[in-house]
Each structure stands twice: as structure tokens, then as C-alpha cells.
Amino acid sequence: MGDDCTYCGCDVTAHDPVYVEETDGDGSRLPAGRFCNYGCLAAHVEEAGLAAGTTCRVELD
Prior knowledge:
It contains 1 helix and 2 strands. The chain is an alpha+beta fold. It has a domain at 12-48. It has a two-stranded antiparallel ribbon. A hairpin with a 5-residue loop joins strand 1 and strand 2 (29-35).
């Protein structure tokens, strides 16, 4: 795996990389993915349906 993009498989060090972390039950940060740029991150989120049914806060006028 090395420095491969989680989405497209390219070497992220040749681009403007974005690294994603998650926290486990005790609050420790764990690597969750690496992406060439925000475009690959957005495409990954879209294709995997990671934003479906999620929201931090909704404000209606």
C-alpha cells in the first residue's frame, strides 16, 4: 500500500495529499485513508455513500 491513494491508487506524494483519521473507543486517532487531493476524497465519499444519512447539524430558516 505505501503511499497509495485510498481512492485511485496513485502515489499521494506526487500530489497535494489529504490524510483522514478516525478515533477509536478510547479517543486514539487511527489512520482512515489517504487521498491525492480533495477531489479523490470527495469521489470516495460519494461512491462509498459515506455521507448518506449523516449530518452534524441542520438549521432551517
